[in-house]
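Record now logged for everyone:
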Amino acid sequence: MYATDLQIYEGLQYLENSISSEVGYLYDMKRKGHLDDICIETKLSDDLKCLTNNIRTFGTTMSHSSPCNLQLKSSVKCQVHLSIPPLLTIDSINPKLKTTLKILKNFQQLEIYGCQVLPDGRHLVLEAVSKSVILFSKNGEIAEHVSIFEDEPNDICYIKANLIAVTILQKPKILLIDLITKKITKAFQVTDSCFGIESNGETLVVSLHGSSHKLLTLDLDGYILSEVTVPGKYTIRTALYKSNILVTNWKDNIIYCYTNNGVLSWEHKLKDIGEPFGITVDKNGFIYVACKRNDKIVVLSKDGKTSRTILSNDNGIVYPRAINIDKTSSTLLVTNSFNGDAFVYEI
């Protein structure tokens, strides 16, 4: 646990006030000579050697003082030096391209709906036409097809260890898949069509659309923990950061931020966001949005008040839907929906 700069400042102010009277007392004692060193000397009388009746004194006692060497410094001369880290803003974000991925067309077209950066540096891509999850190595080469589904998948997320989750749109259900065995370990049936999914390692948050539009939070056994109703027919992708749930509304060009209890914290709508689809959050709380209509990747501040385009068509971004960040390595994966190109960045 670390103190904030304000807490440190208030603590130092309290300490300075509490010791100021003591320092004043020490200054006063020094000025009056009460802190001078006192030395006592004794000289024995020669008469003591004889032990005669003529002894009139046993000697003399003398004292003398010398200035003390106590050095007092004021708070101005002795400041506590605080190391203040630089303030991070969205203006400091500058993605650096690490590698590219190429998804081969097994059919006449591709539709990349989801992607994921794994903690070990590998990458997953969810392709809707072939109904498959494709695993890429760290250097961007296709390693294998993890799963091929009977029905159309819609989104993917990493949970923990070797476990991932995939939403099946029309069934509707959520599948938990082991990356090593490539087997479905669990399947949860849900009430409405399920779209975006995200996990914090302990729970799943999925976007459902049917008679109502809501965010459903489940544990890893499929039990419903909470429901949050969200406005808009087109809020179909979600991301998590601490106690917040972030949602994109691609039709109305709005980013929403809700608490776990369903309270709207803020919403963001600006011209530089065109059909926001995929959404992800880095370790600092900055929000990255894939805007498919205007071929942009836009980053938002934590409070949703400011935004900035960091990648565009000039960087090869074309109709992006899926986007993901690994918070530990600060690796950003951006995928184009139809041409099979995907880009891995360091942020």
